[in-house]
Amino acid sequence: MAERRFERLRELYEGNSAGAHRFRYWLLVFDLVTITFVIATSFSSHGKWIEAVDALFGVVIFADFAARLLLANRRLRFLILPATLADIVAIVSFLAPLAGEGLGFLRVVRTLRLLHTYQLLHRLRMDFPFFRKNEDVIIAAINLIVFLFVMTGLVYATQYQSNPQIANYADALYFTVTALTTTGFGDITLAGTSGRMISVLVMIFGVTLFLRLAQVMFRPLKVRQVCQTCGLSLHDQDAIHCKHCGAPIRIETEGLS
């Protein structure tokens, strides 16, 4: 019985059946709902009902974490992955409301769970023609959004209560966006050496991600098709030969409308 349950669990997380794909899509929806809840509740006082929902989220996240740990072939390596550490912090912050809002808002690291959705790329390519056509743009946008959320959470967690200019999530988001775009109005600044280092990180990595998004949006549209000879993965939409090695390639199209 235990072995059958283990195989069923492995099928859900690693299988290719329709039910397995639906299950992983539901995990993605859960992550998005969790992030929305974290942001929405940052503007209000945390009452009993919010703590109850926090606990519910924490239990679900813990169950998901335990399942992935059970299925991991190299569990020690799994435990030190950045996304795994972010999940552990999220579980603690959801299940420990008495830690206070400063630590509690580190729940925003749950946005790193969006990175787990990259395992769905193959399925997304199969299911959605729009995703196949715009995959690079979508991934670059997700990278930028995740970075924005995480850095905003870090700004809030480190500056709330110690910096009167950061009173809520909106203030932290406003600062992060102005720093990322190098607009720098100067009406909100981060206090202390740690605040300056966070500002540097936002500007360096944020600008890099923003430029990456601009690059994939405005460069000539490419199709992802791996050349079997040299491995080049991006080609022109109408290419019949690899521009790197000259080998014939076959790019599937949906035909002319």
UniProtKB/TrEMBL annotation:
The keyword Ligase does not apply. One of its GO terms (biological process) is monoatomic ion transmembrane transport. Keywords: Ion channel, Ion transport, Membrane, Transmembrane, Transmembrane helix, Transport. It is found in: Membrane. Pfam families: Ion_trans_2 (PF07885). It is a multi-pass membrane protein. The chain crosses the membrane at residues 25-43, 49-71, 78-99, 137-157, 169-191, 197-214. This is Potassium channel family protein.
